């Protein structure tokens, strides 16, 4: 029996939503858009609309649709290959819910692309900073229909990322191995030297086709997962920091 030689991890690929960042709640999302537009709903109506949008899966990065309308099924399947598909899929889902103002559907979609709609997980800066301090390359590989770089910049994490590989910019979405290969090429590493970290076993698990190791985290609200990323440092062979975060705030 041949003993397989251990491969040193030299770089880490991270998913975005549910891995490094989490979107706000559906009720906060709706409330923020109403406030920005100077509109008001009574609490019962706001709760009704938020519950409907949640069930419809209308918030990108939030819950999956409980029921997929037939007319949106193909668009949903390819939602991350272009900005147009992404917007059409999610505004289409939102339109399954009757809202008091037609303008709210696009306003809600626009809101989710703003940095204020996203929060980094509590240990994201610490983990990214430790990887940087130990000379490991980092890329973000996301199925997405818009440019997430401003979110990283606004939260001070952009200096800790070497490359962004976004599905809509390449017309390819995970689990297609081509997206992971592009990310590995962007950081100059063989896929076998790379660890993929994500929350979706199907999409993010596609990296194993190239020989990459994969580590999964739970897609939970930020306050429920304060240390979910720290095991990544163990997988990368890095001793965990004993003090505060390595990343600049």
From TrEMBL:
It comes from Streptomyces chengmaiensis. This is HAD-IA family hydrolase. The keyword Metal-binding does not apply. PANTHER family: HALOACID DEHALOGENASE-LIKE HYDROLASE (HAD) SUPERFAMILY PROTEIN, PTHR46649. The keyword Hydrolase applies. Keywords: Hydrolase. Pfam families: Hydrolase (PF00702). One of its GO terms (molecular function) is hydrolase activity.
């Amino acid at each position: 029996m041949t003993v397989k030689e251990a491969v040193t991890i030299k770089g880490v690929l991270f998913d975005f939503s549910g891995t490094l960042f989490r979107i706000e709640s559906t009720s906060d999302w709706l409330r923020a858009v109403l406030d920005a537009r100077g509109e008001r709903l009574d609490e019962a109506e706001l709760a009704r609309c938020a519950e409907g949008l949640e069930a419809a899966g209308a918030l990108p990065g939030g819950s999956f649709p409980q029921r997929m309308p037939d007319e949106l099924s193909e668009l949903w399947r390819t939602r991350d290959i272009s900005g147009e598909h992404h917007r059409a899929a999610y505004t289409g889902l939102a339109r399954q819910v009757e809202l008091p103002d037609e303008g709210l559907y696009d306003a809600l979609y626009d809101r989710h692309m703003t940095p204020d709609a996203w929060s980094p997980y509590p240990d994201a800066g610490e983990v990214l900073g430790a990887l940087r301090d130990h000379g490991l390359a980092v890329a973000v590989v996301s199925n997405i229909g818009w440019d997430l770089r401003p979110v990283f910049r606004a939260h001070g994490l952009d200096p800790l990322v070497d490359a962004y590989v976004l599905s809509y910019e390449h017309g390819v979405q995970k689990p297609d191995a081509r997206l992971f290969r592009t990310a590995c090429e962007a950081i100059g590493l063989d896929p076998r030297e790379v660890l993929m970290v994500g929350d979706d076993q199907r999409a993010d698990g596609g990296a194993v086709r190239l020989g990459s190791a994969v580590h999964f985290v739970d897609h939970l609200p930020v306050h429920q997962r304060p240390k979910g990323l720290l095991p990544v440092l163990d997988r990368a062979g890095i001793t965990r920091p004993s003090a505060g975060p390595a990343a600049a705030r």
